[in-house]
Amino acid sequence: MQRLQGIAVSPGVMIGEALVMDHEGFRISRRFLPRDSVEVEIERLSAAIAETTDEIEVSRKCVAEQLGDDYGSIFSAHSQMLNDPKLRRELEVMIRERHYSPEYSVSRVLRRYAKVFQSLEGAYMAERANDIFDIEKRLLRRLLGEKREELAHVTSEVLVVARNLTPSETAAMNPKFIRGFATEAGGPGGHTAIVAEGLGIPAVVGAGQFLTDVSGGDTIIIDGDQGLVILQPDEETLARYRHEIDQQKDLLARLEEIKDLPNETADGVRIQLLGNIEFPSETELVLSRGADGIGLYRTEFLYLTGNIEPSEEVHYAAYKEVAEAMNPLPVVMRTLDLGADKLSMLPTPDDERNPFLGLRSIRLALKHVDLFRTQLRAILRASVSGNIRIMFPLITTLIELRRAKMMLADAMEDLEEEGVPFDRDLPVGMMVEVPAAVLQMDRFCDEVDFFSIGTNDLVQYTLAVDRSNKDVASLYTSADPAVIKLIQMSIDAAGEAGKPISLCGQMSGSPLYTMLLLGLGLRSFSVSPSATLEVKRVMRGVTIEHCEKVAKRVLDLESSRDVKTYLREELLKLLPDQPA
């Protein structure tokens, strides 16, 4: 059994069969062969080995001609490994005796070889492991016919393990079949993590190298509560986690009992509980959880699902669907919140060394005004179909906000001239995601109708931590006293100006922080649909007076560790069965 500590980005526990997505995007599953097809599959393996040998020889000749025979000998070594009789025997045994597919046999045997080399000291041995990975990929290309596996096409329950997953790959997952995922790379708060939370599947990222230790079909455990990936679990561990899954099912059943009860505290204070969504199809889930509307509709995935800029009609159709489904409840639509490095339809910036500090979000929209105008027109057109509000992300200066509002006004004038109906009184809001915005809140209050605190970015920019970098992921936490003070300042400033303020980052969906946020004065939460009822359960069990005492205590603490420890203690007093 092997336990790997990663970063928990979406709660829950799942036991299941691994689906390995390697660097090339191959899906390697443990497929068992019918007895009468064994010889055919061995012949297919032989053909793949022969073709791969020819391919390696072409590479050898090409390199030798350009760089000399010494460099070409690297590929001669690859050819020798590939055609080693011992390797061939092992592969044939797995196919003949265990009835494994050639693809699975190749992956299983060569990864075991690579693991041996990786365990030996010295750079030379590490390079031999890389040689074996190269041979594996070449063989798999031949066996799979260069075929890549689309996660959207998976039709059996699996747990995906990969080096990394892009947000669009994650978005393509069907949670009915993909029951969780774990990656070697990645950090908290990124778009991939956000989508996983929206899908409601357990997810762990940044677990370090482990793909060489797992093959498709292996039983693994993904613990999204503790941030653990467990390979080859023993029977005792399996039994313990099966019991934990049963307990989670019981908790979900109890949570269903409160979905139709009012969103209020134990002392009767009404709390607005909104949902975060990525796709129009999620509106049904938001409504089923008793939410008061949508506090954050992330529109980014209209841009991530293809290489072509979405047309105004594509935008409009998606926005209209959401507005109609939620009407008369409010829907806050956030404009494009991506970096130029994520948009294939735009030229890649020449010197974008740090995308998080570069051309992204409102900065990108204001630079590419045609792209921005298209989205603004679509939102305005959809505004007659429901209760829509518009929100601008990553606002840092008054000039940025005023330019964005001017673009919105121009789009209104264009539609008016064309005779296209829209809501002229559309409420306009902004995200509070950088310390500069917090410090200027008094001035921003004169410019917008509402605010939403985006803690995912606020944590990143306050603590100077790249939230996608696993090497500094331990520094990324909403519990840092500086972050909490900025949240308090934002809530206080908005309250003094009489402007509504919500909080839509991952912090809002964690029951650990519910009492603290209520105590700081927050009365509007926007959370992923999967977290709605857990947050509601905490809200309905506490009084505002108690929450204010909790917040006062937290504001006196000096470290994130102390804050988390105290909040866990308070949560366990209220809900002994609640994972903290």
From TrEMBL:
GO biological-process terms attached to the record: phosphoenolpyruvate-dependent sugar phosphotransferase system
Domain Phosphotransferase system enzyme I N-terminal: 5-128
Active site: 191 (tele-phosphohistidine intermediate), 504 (proton donor)
Coiled-coil annotated residue ranges, if any: none
Top-rank EC class of the record's enzyme: transferase
Recorded catalytic activity of this chain's protein: L-histidyl-[protein] + phosphoenolpyruvate = N(pros)-phospho-L-histidyl-[protein] + pyruvate
This enzyme's EC code(s): 2.7.3.9
Swiss-Prot/TrEMBL keywords: Cytoplasm, Kinase, Magnesium, Metal-binding, Phosphotransferase system, Pyruvate, Sugar transport, Transferase, Transport
PROSITE patterns: PEP_ENZYMES_2
Binding site for Mg(2+): 433, 457
Database matches in InterPro entries: PEP-util_enz_mobile_dom, PEP-utilizing_PTS_enzyme, PEP_util_C, PEP_util_CS, Phosphohistidine_dom_sf, PTS_EI, PTS_EI-like, PTS_EIN
GO CC field: cytoplasm
Domain PEP-utilising enzyme mobile, residue spans: 157-227
Localization annotation: Cytoplasm
Limits of the PEP-utilising enzyme C-terminal domain: 254-542
Needed cofactors: Mg(2+)
Highest taxon, organism lineage: Bacteria
Binding site for phosphoenolpyruvate: 298, 334, 456-457, 467
Keyword Disulfide bond: no
GO molecular function term, any single one: phosphoenolpyruvate-protein phosphotransferase activity
Function field: General (non sugar-specific) component of the phosphoenolpyruvate-dependent sugar phosphotransferase system (sugar PTS). This major carbohydrate active-transport system catalyzes the phosphorylation of incoming sugar substrates concomitantly with their translocation across the cell membrane. Enzyme I transfers the phosphoryl group from phosphoenolpyruvate (PEP) to the phosphoryl carrier protein (HPr).
Similarity section: Belongs to the PEP-utilizing enzyme family.
Name of the protein in its database record: Phosphoenolpyruvate-protein phosphotransferase
Species of the source: Pseudobythopirellula maris
Organism lineage string: Bacteria, Pseudomonadati, Planctomycetota, Planctomycetia, Pirellulales
